[in-house]
Write a structure and sequence with these properties.
The protein has about 140 residues and is of the alpha/beta class. The chain contains 5 helices and 5 strands. It has a single domain, classed as HUPs (Rossmann fold), CATH 3.40.50.
Length: about 140
C-alpha cells in the first residue's frame, strides 16, 4: 500500500488525534505509504437574490482559503512523524470527486471516517447510488469516530 487517500469530511473538527488520521498514520508507518489528505467542497452556487454577489464570493473565498490553510497545517503536523503527506482541496460533488482522486492518485486504500451513517456514508450506501462502491478502484476503510 503505497498511496492512502484520506477523505477529510470536516476541516474544523479533524486533528492529528482524530481516529481517521490516527489510522492513516498507523498504516502509513507500517507500509511506508504516502498519505493524500483530500477535502471536497461542494461547487459554488448562486447567492440568494438579496445578498450582494461580491460579498458572497469574498466570504466563500475566505472560507476556502481557511480550509486550505488548515489542511496544509494538518499535513505539516502529520509530516513531523516522518511520513510523506500531501493535502488537496477539491471542488465538486463529494463522491464523484473522491472516486476521481482515488483513480488519479493511484490510491491503494481510501480511508474515511463514519459516524452513525453520516451524509457521505449515506451517499455511498444508498440503494439509489448502489453502483458507487463498485466503481472505486480500491478498498474503502470506514473508521468510526
Amino acid at each position: 500500500m503505497k498511496n492512502l487517500l484520506v477523505a477529510i469530511e470536516n476541516c474544523e473538527t479533524t486533528t492529528t488525534d482524530s481516529p481517521v488520521v490516527k489510522k492513516a498514520l498507523e498504516l502509513a508507518d507500517a507500509f511506508s505509504s504516502r498519505i493524500w489528505l483530500v477535502h471536497v467542497v461542494p461547487p459554488s452556487r448562486q447567492p440568494p437574490y438579496n445578498i450582494d454577489s461580491k460579498v458572497s464570493r469574498h466570504e466563500a473565498a475566505n472560507e476556502l482559503r481557511n480550509e486550505h490553510d488548515y489542511l496544509q497545517y494538518l499535513a505539516k503536523c502529520m509530516a513531523t512523524r516522518k511520513i510523506d503527506v500531501n493535502a488537496l482541496l477539491v471542488q465538486g460533488a463529494v463522491v464523484n470527486s473522491l472516486l476521481k482522486e482515488a483513480v488519479r492518485l493511484d490510491s491503494d486504500l481510501v480511508i474515511m471516517g463514519c459516524h452513525k451513517h453520516g451524509r457521505l456514508y449515506g451517499a455511498l450506501m444508498d440503494s439509489a447510488e448502489e453502483g458507487l462502491l463498485s466503481k472505486c478502484p480500491c478498498p474503502i476503510m470506514f473508521v468510526p469516530h
